[in-house]
Amino acid sequence: MSQESLPDPNEAPTPPASSDFPTPRPKKEHIKVMLIGSRNGVHSTIRHLYSLGFAEVTAWSPLQPTSISGEVMSVLRHSIPRD
């Protein structure tokens, strides 16, 4: 193979001009869903959303106490299709 056909490893490739390619629009949007309530209420809602196919149970954050006694919260970062 000829050495002339190999790229020079010391030469940085020239990136294409940004106007050469359209910027792809993300196909998904990230949302956050927060559940706040009793430990039982949050757990049962997470299981119900799982049964509807919304999100895996393990995708939710661990339960965290809020400033109100007996109240906990859990957060889910979820992707939805963008219109």
Determine Rg (CA atoms, Å). Answer: 24 Å
Strands of the biggest beta sheet: in what spatial order? 1-3-2
Percent of residues in helices: 10-25%
Task: Tell me the span between the first and last alpha carbons.
Answer: 51 Å
Q: Give the number of DSSP strands.
A: 3
Mean pLDDT, rounded to whole units?
Answer: 84
Q: Would you list the SSEs in sequence order as H and E?
A: EHEE
Tell me what the structure shows:
The chain is an alpha+beta fold. The chain has a domain at 33-83. 16% of the residues lie in helices and 27% in strands. It is built from one helix and three strands. It has one helix at residues 39-51; strands at residues 28-37, 64-65, 72-81. The protein has a three-stranded antiparallel β-sheet with strand order 1-3-2. A hairpin with a 6-residue loop joins strand 2 and strand 3 (72-81). It is elongated, with a radius of gyration of 24 Å. The N and C termini lie far apart (51 Å).
Considering the chains and any ligands shown, give keywords for the structure.
83 residues, 3 strands, Peptide ABC transporter substrate-binding protein, elongated, three-stranded antiparallel sheet, alpha+beta
Annotate the secondary structure layout.
Blueprint: E1 28-37, H1 39-51, E2 64-65, E3 72-81
Antiparallel strand pairs: 1-3, 2-3
